[in-house]
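Re: How this chain folds, sequence and tokenised backbone to follow

Filed under: protein folding, tokenised backbone structure, sequence and structure records.

Contents: The amino acid chain and a row of whole-number tokens, matched residue for residue.

Body of memo: The sequence and its backbone structure tokens, given next.
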Amino acid sequence: MSSVDAAYILSAGRSGSTLLNLLLGSHPAAIAVGELTHLPKNVALDTPCACGERVRACPFWRDVLARHGRKLGVDLAADPYALDLGFIGATRVVDRAAQTRGYKTAWKLRHGLAHARLANGVPLPSLATRRFDRGIEETLRLYATIREASGAQVVVDASKTYLKGIALHGRAAGRMRLIVLTRDGRASFYSRLRDGFDRRRALDAWLHYYERALPLVERQVPREHVTWVRYEDLATDPAATCARVCAGLELDYSPQMLDFSRRPSHVANGNDMRLQSDKPIRLDKRWQTELSDADRRYFEAAAGALNSRLGYT
């Protein structure tokens, strides 16, 4: 029996985290929960679950919310934001009544303080990071509730925020594993350009994530507790990649992971792939032919060194 009971995926957006989450969640001993930090928002807005139901009607999430609400003494269906899991940095599906400018500003400060504490060992008064720390503890408690409700051994969380992932590992190091997922930065850059972002914003979303995350992961987390995955390997050889990730989670590889459409999943937040479980796994290489020479030069000047460090040439 594995001692690992939770796995957390760290990655910049548009790097394949939904695909990896669905594949791992199809393991008989695991359950994928998508970007779990967003669960209060998903309940408040009653967004679609990957099982085909809305979140409020999904039998799995109704059970989880009822069980966890009893522990908190709160009706989470009526008051979902009483479940405080940390910063909800939504960009596509946004609850504008909750995710206000003041909310984002306050969380930017909390994350800055949490980063300083991790990066420099800066002692901070408890009030400064109390809300951040509370989200970490509540997330670990919710993992336990999800295991109770599902019978799964390992909860796979694709919330991606590196500060949260590292902090979760720090609280539960013996039971927690991190999966660092990367993708060629030019593909991420192209994806955002295609969606209308200007060059700077399209680049910064990828560049700043890995510039900040990698040193902290390498310094704070033992190597044996981190599995490094490239999206390109996952898409071209999912069996071998999943087998390697399973080894990091102390699980035996199961071939049924590759057919994640056969097992209903309950991913409530992520890209639309979670709602199209019959979609074949294919490597998206459009950037190679559609990214302009000018945009390639822009990327190379600002981020080429980091991309090379991650193994992309």
